[in-house]
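Predict the assembly for these two chains.
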Amino acid sequence: MKIKIIISLLFTVVICTAFLYDANPFKPKYLKLFIPKGWPQPATNIFAKNPLTEEGFQLGRKLFYDGRLSKDGNFACASCHLQFAAFANFEHDVSHGFNNSFTTRNAPALFNLAWAKELHWDGGINHIEVQPLAPITAANEMAETLENILQKLSTDSTYKSMFKAAFGDANINSQRMLKALAQFTGSIQSYNTKYDKVKRGEASFTISEQYGYDVFKKQCNVCHTEPLFTDNSFRNNGLDVNPDLNDFGRMKITGKITDSLKFKVPSLRNINITVPYMHDGRLFTLSQVIDHYRKKMNNTQPTIDSILRNKLLITNQERIDLLSFLYTLTDEELIQNKRYSEVK
Amino acid sequence: MKTIFYFLFAVSCWFTHNADGQPKKSAVKKQVNLNLVFSNTIDEHPVVLFDSSYSNPFAENFVLTKVKYYVSGITLYKSGKAISKSNQYFLIDQVNEKSLIVHLNFPENNYDSIGFLLGVDSARNCSGAQTGALDPMNDMFWTWHSGYVMQKLEGTSTQSNLPKHKFEYHLGGYSGNNSVLNFITIPFPGGQPLSIKKSTLINIHIHAAINQFWNAQSNIKISETPSCTTIGLLAKQMANNFKTIFSITEIK
């Protein structure tokens, strides 16, 4: 009988301890993605299975700026996604990778990713959480393995405490690393350009900007749809294939010949600071881009976008006004926002 | 003394009942351990990686260096009706002996066949970073075209014209026409329903006859197609061959 009582008591103690332990649960600071007024809801909630928290965001932020995610320590995510260039790779047509290698495409700007659908120029990535696997493991980018990265992170006590703060215990695995990165990159937002302020009644366009906005609405808005300035579709915009790269874009992913030479429509937000342009960075100024659409494009390709069959009719004056408007899409608050910067 | 027992009773009730006061399912149907024992075979013998004595139905010699595939959505049936389904994912990997035995729990019942998906369903393919069997560290995830590879079969053959005489079949693609996912059902031997009860540990032995892969429906010759690493028709043909190689040899 005594033994029974002791066992019962022990059991009770264990249960009570469990309750006490529960009374001190993991309590991260939950955050909510801000949806600017008048914007569409994101098509899918990228944080549905990855609750956005301050701790997760901060861990993702540290990982984003950490060169140890690459083989030789030189290539953090941030090496090719620079805040001052709206997280694109400023002045680089293609980016530099491990061992003096080059990538084959222009590093895209990173913002408003919660509204993106497929990622990458060819849409090959179906979820923000799995995107980092591509640059991390590519031989001409970060050239590292997940095993090595986890090994490096697990010897760092700061990471141990940050993983614990973000996920409840100090276990470091690939899923948690990827979810944290997604919390950071998915939280980078651009909604404070002059254009946005005009829309909110906080500023007004100059005459040239207003004319340029009118041209934009007539000529560009179908694909570069407001307020995100992309419709997330894949289109052939009349760029001849570069014979050195033989990059046919979306076709590689879908296997469909009708997707030949189609690439993702990039957002025009921050376009002035994400030079150069196009999937392989072949155009170095916005004037060249406009001239591409009104004159230079190859509109004879079978998969050319139907909107571009006759090229775009943009006069010289309209071109100047359109440029004025495009400059209003630069988001100073995004590029100055300390919350997105490296923690020094 | 009584107080302790009342307390324990209350605790046990709390554990076995949901918030709405209904007993949990597990309290009604006993869960039974069930193992699927996979055996990748060549001529009825378990595959030995790096064994150089194999040849396929086209008399092409080959050495296997990798045999890996996903099995998921394991379902037990009675008279054609799905009775119970597991939501787990398993990676069968020839180099990892433990992975060949899949441990499951199913409710006690009579069952007459088993079914499972070869690969990872499309919903899970699009659900972001995963862990466990689906951890990308298992080298079964395409980084440049998000999605799980359903099956990897690799090796060498003097018939292959690739560098180092390699052959490599990585079958992937989860949506639309490019899907390599196949759900297969296999009746239990003898066509008799099997009573799965708590008192017995049940091992369902499943053989995967690798040599049927080469010619079950389409002919795959190493000399002609030593590799398949992208989505498309070839991957689908290979997947359709692959889905035929499974059979239950015994249940005990």
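The CA atoms of residues 75 and 157 of chain A lie 22 Å apart. Chain A is about 35% helix and 0% strand.
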